[in-house]
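From the shared-data thread, chain only:
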Amino acid sequence: MEQKRIVFKKIWNDFISTKVLKGSRFFFFIAKFIDLLMAWIGRYWFIIKLNLLIPSQNIIIKNPLWVFEFNLKADSRRLVSTWYEDELLSFFSTDKKNIYIDIWSNIWKYVIYCSKKIGFQSCLSFDPDETILTYQKKNIVLNNIEDKVKIFNIALSRNNWSWYLNMIEHDHWVNSLVDNQTFFKSTKKHKVITKRLDDVLEKENIDISKINLIKIDVEGYEFEVLSWSLYTLSKLNVWTRIIMEIRNHIATKQQTISLLEWLNFKIFSIIWDDYIFERIS
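Structure, as tokens:
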């Protein structure tokens, strides 16, 4: 009950601190009210169905952390809020702030936060979902970070490999290269080409020693991404940090952790399903 109160208060504070710059303030209020119900009662079907009340419209919001344009119906509203995963934000601040890599960056919550608030000199954004590319390009302008961010509309895995991105229609929050229904029941598939992180960084002439932070959120595809990025991972400096979501029911969870330990990364902290690793030698 206490945890529900905390989340409820965070959502309410997020609402009153957020300005709607474009779109309906009324429907934004309705959307936040639904979020409050979910936090207090749970994600029951009759509450989720209330989302049908929300029209499909682009909206621009501004809160103390960022400015975002997104689709009020299609995108997860949690992703653009100040309260969702707020416990993680402090781990994005590293001693050195040269290069930040975001693998599966979605609509750029952490890309904007790292380039605008933390002060990283350069951010590389990887996400194969073409449907959110338009929002990424708009948000880069809204937050005045054009000179800091480079967009790669590709998936990371093995080089030049054709695979299918499993997606939920009308939800830009969840997609995965994992071809099963462990996480969600996909409603559409989109063919994508994958590339190795090692090859991309070499082609872009990126100095690996300047990479200070990597975030990975690939919905069950963590081991594949890491396995085909071994050269990059082996050349990272001491104290380089990796923030990665690893859900408990992933079949390759222990393999993923063991691979990073083999590369001299140590678990620094765990917050829910998010693991914070740091290289110790």
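The longest strand covers residues 161-168.
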